[in-house]
Amino acid sequence: MVTDREIAGPHGPVPVRIHEPEGPAGAVLVWAHGGGFRHGDLDMPEADHVAAELARRADAVVVSVGYRLAVGGVRYPVPVDDVHAVWTWVTGRDDLPARKAIGGASAGAALALATALRCRGHGPDLILLAYPFLHFPTPTLGHGRSLENIEDMVRNYVGRISDIPADALPGSADLRGLPPVHILLSEDDDLRPSGELLERQLREAGVPAGTFLARGTTHGHLNRPHDAPAADDASLGFFAGALRVPREAPRWLRRDGEPRIEFGADYNPEQWPREVWAEDVRAMREAGVTIVSLGIFSWARLEPAEGRYDFGWLDEVVDLLHANGILVDLATPTASPPPWLTTKHPEILPVDREGRTVWPGARQHWRPTSPVFREHALRMVRAIAGRYARHPALAAWHVSNELGCHNVDDYSDDAARAFRVWLRARYVTLDALNAAWGTDFWSQRYGEWDQILPPRHAGGPVNPTQQLDFKRFSSDALKDHYLAERRILRELTPDVPVTTNFMVAGDINGMNYPDWAAEVDFVANDHYIGFGAQARDELSFSANLCGNLIAGRPWFLMEHSTSAVNWRPVNPPKLPGELARDSLTHVAHGADGVCFFQWRQSRAGAEKYHSAMLPHAGEQTAIFRAVTELGARLRSLSGVAGIGRTPAPVAVVVDYESWWAAELDSHPTDRLRYRREALDWYTALLDRGIRADVVPVSADLTGYRLVVAPILHLVPASLRQRLEAYAERGGHLVTTYFSGIADENDHVWLGGYPGALRDLLGIRVEEFAPLPDGTAVPLTNGASGTLWSERVEVTDPAVKVLAAYADGGAAVTRRSVGDGSAAYVSTRLGPQGLGLILEDLLTPAGVVSELPAGLRGRVELAIRGPVRFLINRTDEPVGLSELPGAPPALPGRGVVVVPAP
Ligand code: GLA
Ligand code: GLA
User: Fold this and answer.
1) CA dihedral defined by 499, 502, 504, 509, rounded to 10 degrees?
2) Which H, E and C letters describe 362-387, residue by residue?
């Protein structure tokens, strides 16, 4: 509904046009059109079209203001007074929604921002600015030196670029305390730098700000919706997504019916002729498949040429699946850009550390920071989301695929630019960056931001803090891409959960998943089991961490393999029983979805020798039988669905930043492997039948009786305090060699190692003594250390030496602290050696095995509420007679589920 009326203002009545949505309104927006303060009215598209569209798309009341123009002697502040009067009227009404926003385009953006500043503290909940005109002098167009120089000149003169005193450089105001600001930019716009500068100023002032660049547009594009309809649509979508009441996204699949454990695979029907699709779906039903991930690599089929879409075939597949009761976890197909895109825009291709282009031919050949790629990807996301928003089969969004699998390390010029923006947000001033990076070492002091580069190939070791920050930045850059896709999906399908498949597996650590986890509606993970003595434990370790990324909530195993992979040098198949054991181990650690890569084994392409649910040999196969049995097994476990993991008494801490920092170059040894040490502890605990949670360092540790934090290399002051408080209050902390060494900037804590933890541990180390390959140092308890050793000086009488080096020095120590303790292991002991000291660590913490003696070590125990999972860690049967309620024996590689006592 649209109503014209007038509102009383200090200069007389102000005309407004009120656009109301069809349904209930969730927000109200006061909107000011542009026109250089001199032109414009309520009928121009920038007023009428924008207001109508935002009302419809965001379920908002939009009050468009016909403020007095600066003509006939009218001047500042009359237009601001008019907008302010309307704002005051809106906020005084109690029949309008509580969520209130103000916005405007071009000169109208200045009026909106000025109004927001007048009522800072009790003003709008958010601000929407389209191609704003906010500065004078106007910053120059271009991203080159001059712009940076001007800002640096201002920073140098005033000390900052926000809150500039009016008599120093009029035009900038104190922006602190504003609500989030969403800035829409036209690409080819002389005024674009004003919007871009505002974003940086807002960030500096601690105000959340984000921009959207409408490609191929010129200033005022919202006033010409027919010139570039796609850009108009995306621009209005950007605003509507911000304005709409953020609905709490669902935390699990959009589906009806009883809880169950979902079962399925990646499904790639585009690799097969149509006739096969019906066959696929029939066999899926036979196997008990409930969900498939669809369209992951379909971009070239869905958009065969720029802007030309072909959804017909996918419509058919989605309908077919739906008709057969199979849910769709629909991918945005952005993992692999099509050839037309990379041919037209080779500037989206990543560049490696040595400066080599990463060419198309595989997948993920795109720069996370490329604005050109981002634009094309988001256009595709908008198209697919709009197409399937209301399809009843759509159960979840699968954003891209394994973000960062092949493109986490991009050293391109786009990456360099984005890295500088990231660094400016982190450090604000170059002085702060120079201090954090220790740039006085080797004459690396920066005088301008654009002298800073990614840590590209250099003649010697590159600045370690630069490397560490680049890892942080690279994880954030991919997360930013994920968030950009999510913004569109949330806007168009607020009731569909959004996730992306993580790679919590083995040594993969490019993405800081504990940091990402807050952004997914549920955690999804891909895991491929490795080889060797600890492969099974590593699977458990990774599954365990997935279950703790969003504390205790069920998660989704998006991919694993039925048998062999084809990307290792040698790829043996799984042994009988391993398929089910691997799947059920994930379930034991909280997975409520068990999916594989992929449904039907490919005939062609790079993964044709990778196993699948339906192998080359067809349905009459051991794999397909095992798959079908697993489907039935999962159905029998539906009572577990929705129940989180039951916390364990022990935690093993994983800290991605320490992982990154501890493995940087130019260290005492390059042999140290963070994850290997953490896994050794996990194995040693499993060997004793002790349940442990693998948790991010940010987790609440207070409930754990024993916390093992191996190689906790980066310990900022705040973490030191947390760990001290944990022990003081009765917690028992264990840490190892190369822990506590450096702060968040990778600067060494002085006074002796282990730096930040020295006092807590009651020890002091002057020098590291890493061990050459093949060398071991014997300990008095029969263990032997490899990799690392130290001459540990005990500095506190409350320290007890639990094991010594054969030459007499302390090797393992424990200090009583308050009601708890802090222990230290100065060498690599491996699972067996750790087994020799564990009792001394577990006993004071009061941790005992929850398994009968005969099962300890041979069986892994995991608990989900009323249910216990017993997983055979060996290839031999294990008798269960000691366990009431259990079957007589657990077969080799078997899993049984029994009620908790
Ligand atoms: C050389 C260099 C020094 C330093 C040492 C380290 O001698 O001249 O700057 O790097 O190596 O061993
Ligand atoms: C990853 C990818 C899949 C596939 C599998 C093969 O998990 O997401 O597309 O390549 O690996 O193991």
Assistant:
1) -130
2) CCCCCCCCCHHHHHHHHHHHHHHHHH
Residue 419 has what DSSP assignment? H
Angle, alpha carbons 377-502-533 (nearest 5°): 145
Q: Say if ligand 2 is within 6 A of residue 402 CB.
A: yes
> Is the CB of 401 within 6 Å of ligand 2?
yes
The structure's pTM equals 0.87
SS3 content of the chain, % helix, strand, coil (to 5): 35, 20, 45
Angle at 758 between CA 755 and CA 760, to 5 degrees: 135
The rounded distance, in Å, linking the Cα atoms of 423 and 455 is: 13
Does 607 sit in the ligand 2 pocket, CB within 6 Å? Answer: yes
Distance of CA 590 from the midpoint of ligand 2 (Å): 22
**How far, in Å, from the CA of 768 to the mean position of ligand 2?**
40
Return the ligand number nearest the Cα of 441. 1
Q: How far apart are CA 325 and CA 289, in angstroms?
A: 9
Using DSSP's 3-state secondary structure scheme, residue 5 falls into strand
pLDDT value at residue 249: 80
* Residue 821 near residue 815, CB atoms below 8 Å: yes
| Tokens 């630019």, residue located | 417
Q: What's the 412 CA to ligand 2 centre distance in angstroms?
A: 25
Å from CA of 321 to ligand 1 middle: 65
Q: Checking phi first, is residue 598 left (phi over 0); if not, alpha (psi -120 to 50) or beta? A: beta
Using a 10 angstrom Cβ sphere, with 0-12 exposed, 13-18 middle and 19 or more buried, the burial of residue 256 is exposed
Burial class (CB within 10 angstroms; exposed 0-12, middle 13-18, buried 19+) of 10: exposed
Residue 49's H or E segment, with its range, is: helix 48-58
- The two three-digit tokens of residue 877, written as one number: 């049967």
Residue 166 is predicted with a pLDDT of: 55
Instruction: Clarify whether 286 is annotated catalytic.
Output: no
Question: Is 402 noted as a catalytic residue in this protein?
Answer: yes
Q: Is 610 in the pocket of ligand 2 (CB under 6 A)?
A: yes
Integer angstrom CA distances of residue 443 from 95, 422, 468, 675? 64, 23, 19, 34
- For ligand 2, the distance from its centroid to the CA atom of residue 627, given in whole angstroms, is 18
Looking at the CA of 609, which ligand is closest? 2
Classify 398 as helix, strand or coil. strand
* Ligand index nearest the alpha carbon of residue 666: 1
Q: How far is residue 177's CA from residue 181's CA, in Å, rounded to a whole number?
A: 11
Residue with tokens 């009215």: 41
- Separation of alpha carbons 564 and 568, rounded Å: 10
CA distances from 120 to 110, 200, 210 (A): 15, 19, 19
Atom 11 of ligand 2: nearest residue by CA position: 597
- Closest C-alpha to ligand 2, atom 3: 597
The residue whose C-alpha atom lies closest to atom 5 belonging to ligand 2 is: 597
Return averaged pLDDT per consecutive 10 residues of the chain, 901 residues in all.
Answer: 96 97 94 93 97 96 96 89 96 92 94 90 92 79 56 66 60 83 92 89 87 91 93 92 84 95 98 97 98 98 97 98 98 98 98 98 98 95 96 98 97 97 92 98 97 98 98 98 94 94 98 97 98 97 97 93 97 98 98 98 98 98 98 97 96 98 98 98 98 97 97 98 97 98 98 98 98 98 97 98 96 97 98 98 98 97 96 98 93 96 81
3-state secondary structure 509-526: CCCCHHHHHHHCCCCEEE
